[in-house]
Structure formats: C-alpha cells, structure tokens
Amino acid sequence: MKKPEARIEPYTHPAAGWGALKYVAINLLKEKVAGGNYRTLLKQNQPNGFDCPGCAWPDREHASTFEFCENGVKAVAAEATSKRVTPAFFEEHTVEALMAQSDFELEQHGRLTDPLVYDALRDRYVPIGWNEAFDLIARHLNALDHPDDAAFYTSGRASNEAAFLYQLFVRMYGTNNFPDCSNMCHEATSRGLPGTVGVGKGTVTLDDFEHADTLLIFGQNPATNHPRMLGELRECAKRGATIVSINPLKERGLERFASPQHPVEMLTMGSTRISSVFIRPKVGGDFALIKGVAKRVIELDDEAQASGLERVLDLDFLAQHTVGFDAFADDLRAESWDTIVAEAGVPFDEVLKLADIYVKGRAVISTWGMGLTQHKNSVPTIQLLSNLMMMRGNIGRRGAGLCPVRGHSNVQGDRTVGIEERPTEAFLDRLGEVYDFEPPREHGLDVVNTIQAMLDGKVKVFIGLGGNFSIATPDTPRTWEAMRSCALTVHITTKLNRSHLIHGRDALILPTLGRTEIDLQNGVAQGVSVEDSMSMVHISYGMNKPASENLLSEIAIVAGMAQATLGSEKVDWLAQTADYSLIRDGIAQVIEGFHDYNERLKTPGGFHLGVASRERIWKTSSGKAQFLVHAIAVDTPIHQARKQYGERLMTLMTTRSHDQYNTTIYGLDDRYRGVYGQRRVLFAHKDDIAMLGFVVGQRVDITSVWADGIERHADGFLLVEYDIPRGCLGAYYPETNPLVPLSSVADGAGTPTSKSIPVLLKASKVTVSETGELLETHEAVAA
Ligand SMILES: Nc1nc2c(c(=O)[nH]1)N[C@H]1C(S)=C(S)[C@@H](COP(=O)(O)OP(=O)(O)OC[C@H]3O[C@@H](n4cnc5c(=O)[nH]c(N)nc54)[C@H](O)[C@@H]3O)O[C@H]1N2
Ligand SMILES: Nc1nc2c(c(=O)[nH]1)N[C@H]1C(S)=C(S)[C@@H](COP(=O)(O)OP(=O)(O)OC[C@H]3O[C@@H](n4cnc5c(=O)[nH]c(N)nc54)[C@H](O)[C@@H]3O)O[C@H]1N2
Ligand SMILES: [Mo]
Prior knowledge:
- About 35% of the residues lie in helices and about 15% in strands.
- With about 775 residues, the protein is of the alpha/beta class.
- The protein has 4 domains: about 70 residues, no CATH class; about 300 residues, 3-Layer(aba) Sandwich (Rossmann fold), CATH 3.40.50.740; about 220 residues, Dimethylsulfoxide Reductase, domain 2 (3-Layer(aba) Sandwich), CATH 3.40.228.10; about 140 residues, Barwin-like endoglucanases (Beta Barrel).
- It has a 6-stranded mixed sheet with strand order 6-5-18-17-16-7.
- Helix 1 runs parallel beside helix 3, helix 14 crosses helix 18 and helix 23 packs across helix 25.
- It binds ligand MGD (2 copies) and molybdenum atom.
- The site of one ligand MGD has 32 residues, from helix 11, helix 19, strand 25 and strand 26.
- Belongs to the prokaryotic molybdopterin-containing oxidoreductase family.
C-alpha cells in the first residue's frame, strides 16, 4: 500500500468547506464504494433511512434535507466498502503475520464475511458453522464455576434491540458483568449528574439551541467528532449568540466553519466565525476554572445586592428547587484565588471574563466531551459544572441546560436499555417480573475491573458485542496479557481489528451486519432503534445489500448464543429474531418511557424519552437539585509526580485525529491540526521543547510515571511545536494507550484517565519509518 507523504503544515482554512468535500471523494475512492452504495449516503439520517453510525449528535434534518458530514461519510464508506476479508485471506495470513500489520492496514482489508474459529495448530482463523460457533460458546459458558467468570462487553453501536436482548441473555445466564465503551467515555457524566440533578443524561434538545444566547463548549472537538454540531453552532453564531471554547487547544474547527449546506458560503469562500472567546485551561484544569467562575458569580451577586441591582443568582430557582446552596456558597467564598488560578492554569482576568459572559447569558447551554470526562476528578468536575448552571437556573429552562455530547451513535441507548454493570434494584425487579426469572443482584465488572479480573484468573470468557477491546482499553501490555489468559474470546464485529488477534485459547470472530445494511428476517426488512445524545429515540433501516450472505444480524447472533446456552424455556429467542417488534414490546414493558414503543417509532424523527431534570423533577435522594461541595484536588498523582520530577514532568492528553473513528484509522492525516501522512506525533509547547533540551522534529520516547513500579512506555514520537499550554502534551489515541496505567481511573466512575497521564520524555532509541511507524512488531511495542 502506498503511504502518503508525511509532513507538518499548519492549516489556515475554515473547518469543513471544500477541504471536506475533497476528502469525501478520496474516501469513497479508497473504499471502492460501489455505485449503488453511493446513494446510501443520501439516506443517512433521513426518514426511512438509517441512523448514521458515526456520532450521537441528533439529526435536526431527520425529516428534511440531506445533512452533509465528512466524517459521517467516512463512517458509512468504511462500512459500505467493497473490500472483503474472506476465509481465503486467513488461509494466507497467520495471526502472527497479521500482528505485524498496523491498525490502519488491518482495517483496510475490508468487511469480514464468515464466522471463524481459531486453529492453534496452524495459527490461523478457519471457517466454522454458525451453530457450531454457538455451541462452542455455550460449552464454555456452561462449564464455568460461576457466571461471574465471564464478561460481556458492549460497544455503543449496538441497537436498543440488540443490547436489550443481550442483557436479557446475560442476566438470565446469571451475571451483571457488563463492561462497555461508556466506561471509558461519558461514565463520569452518567455517574456525576445523578448526584446533582438526578438523571445521568443531558437536559436539552436541539430546539434549545435555537433559543440559547450563550454556549460554553468544554473539552470537545466537534469539527472532527461531531461535525453536524457545527451546523447548529453556526446558526447560533449567526444569531449573535456568544460561543466560548474551553479547551487547552484552540481547535481549528471551533474558529471558523464553512458550511457545505450553504452554497453561497462555499462559492464565495466565505465562512462563519464560531467561537468568539477561547479560554485555555491547562490539561485537567477545568475543575479549578469552574470553581473560579462560580466564586465570581457569588461575588457579583454580593455586589449587585449591595448596590440594589438585579440579583445575579436565580433566587427563586434556588429556593424552590435546590438544597445545599449555603454550604456550597460558603465553600466558594473560602476558596483561594491563588489556588484557583494555579490549578486552572488560566489567568485571573480570564476567569473573571468567563464569569462575566456566563452571568450576562439569559439562556446558557454547557456542552462537554472527553476533555472533561477522562480525568481523575471528572465526577466532581461535572457535578460542579451542573452546580454552576443551577446557580442561575440554567437547567430545565428554554434555551438553557446541560449537554453532554456522547460518542458512539447508540451509547446512550445501550445504557438506557440495561447495559449497566450497576443496575438498580427497581430495574432488576421489573426485568425479573416480566421474564419470570431471578436476575443476579450483585453488581458486575466495568472495563478496568474486567481486565483486572482476567489478570487475577477470575474472568475466563470474554464476549464482545462490537468494539475493539484490546486496543481501546488502557495499559496495553497488561490488557493483552489479560485477554490471552482467557479460555475463550468472542468478537461480534464488522471489520478485522487487532482484538481478533489478541485472543484466548479458543477464539471466535462472528461477522455481523452493519447498520447501513438491509436486515431481512423471514423475508421482512427489520428496523432497529437508537437513542441520540438528546434522548430522541428513532428507527433506523439499512439500505445496502449485506457485505456477505453468511452474515447474521447482531440480534440473531445474541439469540443464537442464548438459545445454545440457555435453551428456550423462558424466552423464545428465535421468535424474537424473527420479528424485532417483539423485543421492543419487551423493552416497553421493562423500561420507563417506552410505552407504545412500536407505535411511537412511526413518528418521523421518533420520540423524546423524557428526562426528569429537564422538567425540573429531581430524582435525587432529597427530591431537589443538589449543590455538592468538592475541594480543588492539590495532591493528585500528577501533583506528586511533579514534586518528584519538577517541570520535566508533563501532562499528556490523548485525543482523536480527524481521520479516525476511535480505534478505526481511516487515514493518516489530521488536517485541522496540520498533520499529514503520520500519526506518531507529540504536540508540545516550543518553550517546553527547548527547556527539555530537544528540538522540533526530533523523535522522543514517552514513559509514564506511576507508583506501581511497572515501566510503561510508548516510543518514537515526532516532536511537533504546537500552541498548547506549558507543561501539557497531546498525542493520538490509541497509540498512547500503553501509557495509561490500569489503576489510574476517575474516582467514582472508573474511567481510564486518558486525558491526564503524567509522563517524562527522553531522546528516542527506536527506529521509525518516515510515516512514523515503528520498525518493530506490534508485540515489541507493547512489551
Ligand atoms: N470522526 C469521529 N467521530 C467521533 C469519534 C471519532 O473517533 N471520530 N469518536 C466518537 C466517540 S466514542 C466520542 S466519545 C466522541 C469524542 O469526541 P471529543 O469529546 O471531541 O473527543 P477527543 O477527540 O478525545 O477530544 C477531546 C477534546 O478535549 C480537549 N481536552 C483534552 N484535555 C482537556 C482538558 O483537560 N480540559 C478541557 N477543557 N479540554 C481538554 C482536547 O483538546 C480535544 O479538543 O466522538 C465521537 N465521534
Ligand atoms: N487513550 C484513550 N483511550 C480511549 C479514548 C481516548 O480518548 N483516549 N476514548 C475512549 C472512548 S470515548 C471510547 S467510546 C472507546 C471506544 O472503544 P470501542 O467502542 O471498543 O472501539 P471502536 O474503535 O469504536 O470499535 C471499532 C470496531 O467495532 C466494530 N464495529 C463497527 N461497527 C460495528 C457494528 O455495527 N456492529 C458490531 N458488532 N461491530 C461493529 C468493528 O469491527 C471495529 O473494528 O475507546 C476509549 N479509549
Ligand atoms: Mo466514546
């Protein structure tokens, strides 16, 4: 495969625009998307079309015109590719040989066509019949001492129907071991918000964006990860709303945007300014920053009160709807400005500026992404942000509210329908009642605890409904050791990925239909449903011919495993497969908000699931929205490491390039950040590069600092001078996952701290190709 030229070249154009159209064409050619399947792209997010398998941003245009999204096209093209990975491919490649290929190369081979089982004697995957595969799974599961010795992963593309049937099967089998991608993603949101506003979901809908006058965008890169959100922000900006980006990086896509939906803007080479203010905390500085803003709100309110002006706090909201405000305000008054400024990494006057913008806003929306959720103190940070919003009644009011922007297109829905390692008693009671069984009560394992349990020899069977577990997870060498210690690993996936190669003693690859493909059961096309980031539930129908005749839908695979393992005494699994509306009937009976599910899915655009906090109903222990007091952490592992190593100690954030979907690498460019043809780069401030005695363009090896005596390293990164706060570094995920210690997680959420890794740099000792690939095997990288 010809590798593109590697270079660094700052990007000077607006986001999207003609550049995006060019890249769309390149991707369609690269994936050799066949004629008929081009048309698919026009059906993306359309009535009677399919839900884009890209991000979880809602579809405003679900009922009208085609919404263009470069990265949505990439996601669809990757699935609609005409390239195939057949059994013949595996005849030609041993697992050992495939291990030498990069993640980018593995992905490029195309769609998996047949179920495969690992043949240890020949170190190859070979074909297996579907029923034999299900029997192998049943034999393993039924041989375990206890159902808790198996773990059942879910990645957030699984539909509500697939996820619900999966959790039913697993709970009937007897465990709550549901690690899922959410554990690595918005878990801090899902665990943090219930403590303040009662529900772990956002409180806004797209309509609120039409009425907001102020938007605070925390730790998010929408031009890459939620491109359709830019269309919304563009409208807000045009209307004169103030948009603030709070991010260590000045992400290009938040500066200017040329909308492909607007021909005049494209033809005149025009663009719209998105963010007018950039506040740039150091990595992990948000908690202190938000605390500073909240403290200033109190000060401004004191001043207003003293001079008889309109109060800054929403006193009615505070009195009627909240508890704990006095203690919260006392804590803010007592907080030191020096600590705030030092820990936020934001100058005092900028904290005041942000507070001014916040209190001027009559309708404020706060959005956030991984920049807030992947730190040790992410749960307190999100609780504090919701408290800041509560101070001025910015929750449950038109044009205002909390907007966590989720990742995978159905990650929110999966949790709603029961992919939850810590289920509530009420949910289990209801599930048991409807399906007539006694669900397991003990809470299960999340992602990090699953890996640890494998290392401890406890978990022996891993089943993954989608995803790329071995690559998305932290502490790569330990994760690989864990996966290889399993008796059985099973991956239900669409495309070849490295997790298939990091396998247990027995291993299966079970290829499945993607969301873009027609799902026929007994000759009837089935739709599946998903919930977006704003709690809208809608139906999705595939349009493309399946990539192979030997694919089963995720639902059929789950039913096959369940039937083989449990039999059909309690649930007629195969009947559920024949008609997905039966699964929806089950969801409607078990889960609140889904009454008349099948009927309500017929509404174009679907229905809103109802979020209590949006209605100012507070499902907290006190029945009110709660203010919580948290201190600024000044003794984290990063603080401790800095004490030991001084200013040489850096904080590394790991982030996505423009050409990837999580672990799926579409290409080697990150054009908004000026990186082309390579991924092994490390963004650093020029003064830090000099201070450490390096030069721009030099390669360095990264080691992380963690008190367990294990040396963790990722080597051969090209130093790129970048506008990033001093003391902070940025690099791409997943290459940097070997650096994230398994035990370094967000308190109360268990999320790996992949946005704040304490690291040291040294001159590189490894050999790297021009495009930045390590000239060693992937085994060696993880060793
Ligand atoms: N094309 C594409 N779309 C995607 C994905 C993809 O990989 N590709 N992934 C999907 C998934 S699963 C998810 S979760 C989302 C992820 O979407 P994002 O949440 O945008 O994820 P990241 O790329 O990890 O970038 C996070 C942003 O946080 C900033 N940041 C880092 N550390 C801090 C910090 O300490 N404070 C603040 N304030 N900001 C910080 C980074 O500079 C970056 O701009 O996107 C989804 N959509
Ligand atoms: N260092 C670091 N680590 C991170 C992150 C980070 O920012 N930094 N982000 C974390 C986040 S937010 C997330 S969500 C996780 C992502 O973790 P995962 O969800 O596990 O990873 P993905 O890369 O999204 O999974 C891609 C694979 O899913 C399969 N697939 C694609 N479509 C389908 C489908 O329709 N059905 C099925 N069954 N399979 C399908 C394909 O085989 C593909 O190879 O990674 C986390 N890891
Ligand atoms: Mo995610």
